[in-house]
Design goal:
It contains 14 helices and no strands. By secondary structure, it is an all-alpha fold. The protein folds into two domains: 2-73, no CATH class; 91-307, MetI-like fold (Orthogonal Bundle), CATH 1.10.3720.10. α9 packs antiparallel against α10. The chain is globular and about 85 Å long. The protein starts with a helix and ends with a helix.
Length: 314
Amino acid sequence: MIRFLARRLAGSAVVLLLVSLLTFGLIWLVPGDPTTVLLEASATPEQVGRLRVALGLDKPLPLQMLDWYGRVLSGDLGQSILLNRSVTEALLERLPVTLSIAAISLTLAVMLGVTAGILAALFHNRWPDQIVMSTALFGLSVPDFWLGLVFVVVFALGLGWFPTGGFTPIEQGVMEWARSIALPSLALALTQMGFVARMARASMLDVLNQDFVRTADAKGLSRTYVVLRHGLPNALVPLLTVTGIIAGALLGGTVVIEQVFSIPGVGRLIIGAILSRDFPVIQGGLLFLAVVYLLVNLVVDILYAAVDPRVRLA
């Protein structure tokens, strides 16, 4: 297990390095810099030059990158240019909002997707299977931001059941908190539920065709007992990997869905930083999301290795 974890941690370190390099490079390919936002259009070249020196933007790009890596290794993601506070504080302040939406979306996607996939497998090539697979295909084809806008029009503006946007902290009431994140969480979950349902169906069909399931059927055991006792535990093992994949997709989806619903999460912070050229927030935010994504996948890998010894011995 130690060797298994060491390999996963080494791979995660390489991924973080690549993410940081790509983020740093792509940011500097975008026209403009923070001085275009902080200064008026009438600013003189001397004023622009002094601000660039104050922000450290006058240094060559490799030196700026080395300075940034030095701060990151010491646990400092830098100072936000526009917010006038540390990037770490800004991220930690908004992280609970993003994680709550992503966690609820992940729970809904897995629960609904696994249930739908198992139902489709049990009624293979019959009308329940066709309905589930058609719904799954629809979910995979629809962008989450479009689905979010539809939810706003129907359930918020039309029926008035939910607010059109914003976020209510749980300290101000559980019901109000749940209403504020219900639509964005459901919009994210439905777009990933189809992927989970298709994987659950394929996994369950594969398990139901195994010899040990046929033996259990031949013994006269009830179909429900065979499915729940023998089929389901074995079918859920491959879905652990799927959980890690959709967790990353949901984290990425929050960047857009928070903008649609005006939710003050990490995603909206990054979008605002991109529009205002707040480079430290962009770099720190994307690196932060990458770390969270890798931690989730590391936990999934550990769970997968715990239930399937073939993985950690490979």
